[in-house]
Queue: 3 jobs
Job 1
Amino acid sequence: GVDGGLTLASPLVTSLSPLASLTSVQGASYGWPDAGLQVQDMDSLITLDGLQSLSSVIGDVTIEWNDSLESLEGLEGLSETSGKVHILNNPALMGVEALSGLQSCSGVVFYEGNLSLPQCAVDALSDALASEGASCPVSADWLVDTPHSPGMSTN
């Protein structure tokens, strides 16, 4: 596992396969937001393939500003996070079913900028999590402030 949080941010990386053995991320006890796993500005990634072994994140999972990301494929093994899963500004994102393995989290929140993501995909994820008895509410706050906006509470 990784202690102190993990931020993946490079527009040139085309594969996360070097992370195939990563099973957990222990977030930092400092920083903004509660950094667990951040995938941002990875403009050459189409999926998150390579993160299949990741099952646990202490802190938030934030997936943002990934211009070519079409699917969260690769996160099928993620079963718990102590924080929320924030998904915002991924204009090519069309599928989120990879998150249906979540059993415990503070919530999955979809913000603005996921221009290709249909509401039915969000609804299907919500239904899938509910049918598995997961403690992980899904919300699509398309017009709310993003987690990085000044004045937004982290609670």
Job 2
Amino acid sequence: WVTLARTYYVLRRFPEAVQAYEQLVKLVPDDANVLADYADALAMARGRRIAGEPLALVKRALALDPNQWKALAMAGTEAFDRKDYKTAVEYWERLRSAVPAESEIAKSIANSIGQARELGGLQPAPVAAAPQTQAAAAAAKSQATAPAASSQWS
């Protein structure tokens, strides 16, 4: 089911990807990566709308793994879309600490954080290099093999 779901996703056949993820989640209901990928496919099938069921899946993924990179990206984007810039920044700061500091995705996340801070009238963060966590290597590997880049959510 994993291969089928990801293949449908890559082919941009989102409704079919959703069906495959539905089956996969029945088999592995407590896998944060699967839940985040399912949320992603479902949101894409709904015209990139994260609110509703995709957000519920994101929250389940984050309950299982608070540093799941795709779930953090999607949660931040959903908060940003609601103009809850403070919450968006909080999610994206967590995401930034889970990726390699000098990576392209870290730069994209920093831009999103800056935009949210500006729109929300929030104070800029102190300038410091983002610390790498143990999740950094796993996040970088997941980004290379995941069905979608998190940049579409930020």
Job 3
Amino acid sequence: LLPWAMKRTLILAAFAAALSGAAMAQTPTEALSVVSGGKTHAFQVEVADTLPEISKGLTGRASLGKDQGLLMDFRTVREQFNLNMKGVQVELDMLFLDGEGMVRAIATSARPGSLRTVAPGLGSAAVLQIAGGQATALGIKPGDTVKNKMFGNGG
């Protein structure tokens, strides 16, 4: 038999893990696609359009599927953010987008936990974060188009 303190710790850890998994499973997603070189690549993305959501980003996320991502809308917060990888546990590609969804720049394979600022040196209306290496694997490049209701061009 386990001592009560150890049982309590195991029960609390299991409860916290269940809550964490439930919270992640309930995060709403929406369709987004990237049109590149005549091909369309489909993603399901979470949308961050408030300062607290953008600040949190993908912090604490242990994994990110090849067809998942986070779309950050900077138009609603009225300020450009300096992005870094603090607290992020997965490698990311960041696509910097204009107001129509055109890819203006890409930062590939941003290193987990890095405090280095990730920015293209130009203002962006939005940033799409996808799994590290996916931009290269899919042939996504500046000039390609991201389609999502945010840009008024579908999803």
